[in-house]
Design goal:
heterodimer; A: mainly alpha; flat; B: mainly alpha; Four Helix Bundle (Hemerythrin (Met), subunit A); 7 helices; 2 strands; about 65% helix
Amino acid sequence: MTHTGQQHPISLYLKIWGLLFVLSTCSYLVDYFHFAGYLRWTLIITFMLLKAGLIVAIFMHMAWERLAMVYAILVPPLCLLVLVGLMVSEADYIFLSRVVFFGQGITAESP
Amino acid sequence: MVAHSATPIDRPALAPDASAAGWQGITRDWSSDKDAFKQVPWGKAMMWIFLLSDTFIFTCFLTGYMAVRISSTEPWPNTSEVFALTIAGNHIPLILIAIMTFVLISSSGTMAMAVNYAYRRNRGRTAALMLATAFCGVTFVSMQAFEWSKLIAEGVRPWGNPMGAAQFGASFFMITGFHGLHVSIGVLYLCIIARKVWRGDYERSGNYQNVEIAGLYWHFVDLVWVFIFAFFYLW
């Protein structure tokens, strides 16, 4: 079965490309202007997700793909978020154990 | 053994490839007999599935890095400082990383345009844009290699470093190493497909899907960098 392919104008890709540059610059400025704490992390994650979303949806054409495939690809990574959540919890516990029971890192700052 | 006749399904008959919106469409696709992803060429579907598996691998690496960083009682090296360069007397944090991000985003742009021209069957521009993408990839890997040599010269090893927590080196070399390997393989892949496009191997069938499939791999490489940049360098 032949695939007719994308018929989108080149201008779409140039616009998204420009947007990616802007978002990348914003990400870099988060470090350049020494944002800190939760604001820093929120900005980092927001810009990251925006860039990732644009790349997957437009450049990788996902926005126009058949729903069955979209879900088959995008839903499993949600399981990864579960893994990340579990590992945050465990790593935090390990850090606590090292400080309380092994007496480590008295002068260490938390990450 | 007596075969039971299937009970008739209480649904109006539809052509199997008919696109149906929403949940009904998805369940019908996934439960169908021959292929689950209707109207999606098998090459593209398989590349997506491979990229999904690669997502799992990189997520495992990044999660491992996250776990050792959270549980480390020694302070993590300050990446702004570790990856800063002094250019013409100016100390600029993360500048090489910013340039590398710029290069990779550019390469994604050239790749997207290459796919667009491929479907317009413009072989010359397609091949040229694919080679431009590959060139950006080579530039990226070269800069990463420079970064590696600089850090190694400064004493960063997988088992320790003078700047902070010992796990920094292992995380850095493992994650950027695998990513760099993917970029390098991508460069080779792009050159091979670009040559085939240039020679007219796809002109007979008129089917330029392989350019789009190569594009999917390349955008994935850029995507992984977006996450590495955010979580390893900026965080």
